[in-house]
Design a protein that fits this description.
This protein has 164 residues and is α+β, with helices and mostly antiparallel strands. The protein is 27% helix and 27% strand. The chain contains five helices and ten strands. The chain is globular and about 55 Å long.
Length: 164
Amino acid sequence: VVTDRPGIAVGASTADCGPVLFADAEAHVIGAAHAGWKGALSGVLENTIAAMEGLGARRERIVAVLGPSIGPENYEVGPEFIARFVEADANNISYFAPSAKSGHAMFDLNLYTVDRLTRAGVTADGLGRCTYAEEDLFYSYRRSTHRKEPDYGRQISAIVLETE
């Protein structure tokens, strides 16, 4: 979601996936993306940048920030997940670390997201906050699932252009 209209907030609701907020301060264009593994792998970040460019932003001026999301120490994935990423790009293997569980790995969604943004030509950084580990601050789908809780909360990350 992107806008160039002051006073209109855009955002993403998440519970482990990465909320990414974008801004080109000079062009007065902002954006938000919900970057879970599927979205990040399939191009939601690059599509958001392209949509911002359609409103006059320039990628070399865009700054993107990845908000709270699940950290690599808590994101264990199975072999099908790993295969999907490696089939898309063999270099994606670098975003996986060994897991104690055979055939599984720990996935670094944060680094993957920031790297994709950087390769797309924008300045990017992440907050380094883990939704799973920091339960006093954030909701986590995975944490709730592991505890067999009936539901999970969500947080919203939003950005707005100031009105003049």
